[in-house]
Design a protein that fits this description.
With 206 residues, the protein is mainly alpha-helical. The protein is built from seven helices and two strands; from the N terminus they run ββααααααα. The chain has one domain (49-204). α2 runs antiparallel to α3 and α2 (80-104) packs across α7 (198-204). The longest helix has 27 residues, at 49-75.
């Protein structure tokens, strides 16, 4: 059997191969062939969007915890409802940190955790806005606003609540869209979920 010269391109048969009778003798192979002399396959790098968005969520969650602690100190002497909302807000911030850590390690579940925290924070914000009248009374008692300012706020209280809820919905909607950006990217790296702990995964890749 004669060996082909090294410079000759090798033919790779793709698809089905059929043997047909050759009038001149021997066997003739019919099928699809693809010439691949030194073929190079270009692979796209994994997008860094999940990691960047996840780290941003961790930072925002940290600020949320600090803000919640400050609100607890302020709410101790004012309203029980705002105290409870502040404590729950810290829990939401903790969930945001956990979801951000998971997302930064290309774990798709982090996105759903973050979306859940965004929805919960919207509910808490709407409840807090609905209690604005009680907040105004507390501010009046503590001397933060005057009687004239209190009366003015009472006159436009419903309008302020409506505008506040609309703005809250818009802001939370934008946050939700940002969080879901990795799902819209083809090379998001979610095919291989991480199984090790969140804290170890986060600091190992820094």
């Amino acid at each position: 059997m004669e060996t082909p010269p090294p410079w000759q391109d090798e033919a790779v048969v793709v698809g089905s191969i059929y043997e047909e009778s050759n009038p001149e003798g021997g066997t003739m192979i019919s099928g699809l062939t693809d010439m691949v002399p030194g073929q190079m396959i270009m692979l796209q790098p994994v997008s860094s969007a999940p990691k960047v968005i996840g780290i941003c969520c961790v930072i925002l969650g940290g600020f949320g915890v600090l803000s919640g602690l400050y609100e607890i100190v302020v709410s101790v002497s004012s309203s029980t409802l705002f105290l409870v909302l502040s404590v729950l807000g810290i829990g939401v911030s903790g969930g945001t940190i956990a979801g951000g850590l998971m997302l930064s390690q290309y774990n798709k579940q982090g996105i759903f955790i973050l979306l859940g925290m965004i929805a919960i924070s919207f509910v808490f914000g709407a409840i807090e806005l609905s209690q604005s009248e009680e907040m105004y009374e507390t501010m009046l008692k503590e001397g933060e606003i005057t009687q004239e300012e209190y009366d003015a706020l009472q006159n436009v209280g419903g309008f302020v609540e409506t505008i506040g809820i609309v703005l809250l919905a818009v802001c939370n909607g934008i946050c939700g869209l940002i969080v879901t950006i990795p799902l819209m990217i083809s090379n998001n790296g979610f095919e291989k979920p991480k199984s090790h702990s969140l804290a170890e995964s986060f600091f190992e890749n820094q």
